[in-house]
Every structure is written in C-alpha cells, then in structure tokens.
Design a protein that fits this description.
A hairpin with a 7-residue loop joins strand 1 and strand 2. By secondary structure, the chain is of the alpha+beta class. The protein is globular and about 40 Å long. It has one domain. It is built from 2 helices and 4 strands. The structure holds zinc ion (2 copies). One zinc ion binds next to strand 4.
Length: 135
C-alpha cells in the first residue's frame, strides 16, 4: 500500500515538475523579450526551453526526469534533476553542470530547489550537481 502511494507521488511529481519547468522557461522568455536581449545564458546558466544538463531544446516529445521530495515546507522542495529523455538515453551527449561546468555522469543529477510562489507559480533554482555539491 505504501509503495503504491509512493509511485503515485513520484508520477505526480514528474508531471508537476515538467509544468514547473515549462512555466519557468516561459517566464524567462517573457522577461527577455521585454528587454529585447539575445537568448543567451540566464543567471543560472540555463538556456530558455532547454535541458539544463545537455542544452537540448525541450519539445513535446522530450521530458525532464526529476524527483521532487515530498514533505517539509511545501513552498521550498528539494528536487533532483536527472536530465531529459535525450541525455539519459544517449551517452554521447555531454551533460554539463550549469554551476561548476563539469561533466555530470548519467548516474549523477542536478540538485535544485523548487519554489512555489504566490499564484501557484513555480521557480526552479539549481544549486549544483552530484560532483560540485557533495555533502
Ligand atoms: Zn538533457
Ligand atoms: Zn556541478
């Protein structure tokens, strides 16, 4: 029973995160278009609409794989970004951490915080990868 519940939570988390990411990139795009700046790296080193690891543009068929940890403060959840469907399946794609610029192995992931803001808006902040953010 508890295992089943965990699976449901994980599935919900992945869907939630996918929409959070889409919303985050959309808000980045809006900000940029207002200032009419070129689509360069944002503050976090994330390209708009791309996987933060391999920089592959995210389309309808590609998805971010991530784990959102339940419990604690619902406005600030710990989140592990494992990558997108491209760089997890194609080992020839380089997965670069936007924080330390080092290569992240397929077994590694990005550590991030998923903030829930007012009006149900999400914000993803990447703090590092398994290489540079070791405990
Ligand atoms: Zn990727
Ligand atoms: Zn790193």
């Amino acid at each position: 029973m508890s295992l089943f519940f965990t699976i449901i939570l994980c599935a919900a988390a992945v869907i939630l995160f996918y929409y959070a990411f889409a919303g985050f990139f959309n808000s980045q795009r809006k900000k940029k278009s207002k200032k009419s700046q070129p689509a360069t790296d944002s503050v976090d080193g994330i390209l708009s609409g791309c996987c933060p690891l391999c920089k592959t543009p995210l389309t309808g068929s590609s998805k971010m794989i991530s784990v959102i940890f339940q419990g604690g403060d619902p406005a600030d959840r710990l989140c592990h970004i494992k990558g997108c469907t491209f760089c997890l399946e194609d080992s020839s794609l380089k997965r670069i951490c936007p924080v330390c610029r080092k290569q992240v192995p397929v077994t590694g992931y990005l550590i991030s915080h998923l903030f829930l803001r007012k009006g149900n808006k999400h914000h993803v902040h990447i703090v590092g990868c398994t290489e540079c953010h070791k405990k």
